[in-house]
Fold this sequence. Notes:
The structure holds 2 protein chains of 2 kinds. Helix content of chain A is 76%, strand content 2%. By secondary structure, chain A is mostly helical.
Amino acid sequence: MLVWSRAGRILAWTAAALVFAIVYGLPIGVIALASFSGQWNDVLPSHLTLVHYANALRGDSAEQAQVSIVTGFAASAAALICGSWAALALRNLARLPKRALDVLFFVPSAVPSVSVGLALLVAFSQPPVLLNGTRAIVLIAHFVLISAFTYGNVSAGLARLPPEYEQVAESLGARPFYRLRRVILPLVAPYLIAAFSLSFALSMGELGATVMIYPPGWVTLPVGIFSLSDRGSIFDASALTMILAISTLIVLVGLSRISSKASVR
Amino acid sequence: MATPVPSHLLRSDIATAGEARSALSTAAAPSLADRRVRGIGFKDVTVAYGGLVVLDALTLEVRSGEIVALIGPSGSGKTTALRAVAGFVRPTRGRITIGDRDVTNIAPYARNIGMVVQNYALFPHMRAEENVAFGLRARGASQAVLRERVAESLRLVGMEAYAKRYPRELSGGQQQRVAIARALAIRPQVLLLDEPLSALDAQIRRSMLDELAKLHRELPSLTVLYVTHDQTEALTLADHIGIMRDGKLIAFGASRSLYRHPPNRFSAEFLGRANLLPVTSVQPIGRGLAEVRFGEAVLAATNPHGLPQGADCLLCVRPHDLRLRQGEGGHNALAGIVESVQWQGEANSIVLDVEGHRLRLTCAPLGEPPEPGTPLALAFDPHVVTLVPETSGD
């Protein structure tokens, strides 16, 4: 603690809490309140209702939530496998080629998601590979957008792993796949879980690319929220936003518990 | 490490991981022939990184059952030599053999070595017994062999009571014991120890040093290559010591001999804190002794390197071989002025100026240590001091 006086500490905590409340608490609080609001013409809603949640669970929203979760899991799993594979393959490369390939991997994260959506639309709207209007193009877009983060997370984990673990394992007679399975993957498990969590959260919230390429029948929650707010159904959109946030949070909390167990070991 | 070791524990005729599987499925009786094939050979081994030579034409033989310590300052190439045996660096030239097998181009996992590193590298997600079992599992050992070897190895290092603990629940010394048990469980052809005690505090290091010495007494057929920068570890454990500098082996010999008769200045200074006085006019006087002149004084010393008459050389006197004497003159006598006196608990260390050269003397604690500026007379036994060629060892 850099602040030594009691009064100073109280002041610092108060300032931090205030900033946190304004930056994070207020927007989330407003959305949460709006999702329960029957009518809101004053500072606070005039009455509260659960009708927007009922609408959300009755209509297409449940299906949209399911689509988002399936997309998030599938794209994150694919990104985790490919990103980990790439990180494992590239870690022992010489510095220059590794840096060049690092840049290639990180390009999608530096390009706006709308551009990625447009690029996929243009690329896969013509033969020989025609994916426009399919679910696959949504999964590919999400995979492209999140794989850089997965690669980055797993690379960071591998970089922090002392080489002695693998060397000692090898000296004891462990072949490459055995070392990977019994030593490397368990040791970087917290990073793999963190990478998957981040990818899943990003996928769940992805709108820019998805809105350009989603096919009928594969509408994600962010696209649904965007459509509702575009039509002026702000309270219904708020309820959906809360469902999106809570479902993402539940998955992330579950993953973080697994990650904590892996870290403790 | 108190339990006697079954002689078969370190028996090793396992050449590859494939052979290991078949060997591990049976617990065969030890064979005398094993002793012949467990040494390590470096033949003109050179390692370079991008043109920078870090190990320069190393030729060295570690015989079966020996402990050879490689010592030297940082960057001298000692760890590179060990890593070359393990297979983690590839020589740009030369051959490495383990036993009668050329392993230069063999993958590390097929070399059948045990390795213990400075930071233990115990797998943190495995319990102590799982760590010890790792190598056996990797080689496909049967459950019966695995249970027996894990128990034996843990007993060998006195850690059987800690088998179920995770590494984070063990102290540094305990972790190092488990690391040694893990390396021994596979019955390696050779054991490579890379500064295994440097992460431990001084007291535990001394205790582990005793235990390593005891371990080798219990496993006399185990060949060990021990890399350290600590001369005490090397002198305590090693049968032979190699001194390295700038990627080259500049001295190699039996520990006592190398300590008593260092072949060059660097070895004398690095292995023990030698006083080196420039002397001239070497003249043999029989019984391996030679007469030399230091200023006005005529001194006698051993001349193991056969330095010719008239050669410039150094008189190597260990601080504990100097003794204080009453009066002046006499054989092998030097006169000096006290510069400083340090009390070190079990000894006094006195630094003297002897004709412009600094000399360090250690002796039992003195009741009344001399004050700086006091003239003192010194003497030494000519049979415990040696003449060293005035070369750096290159």
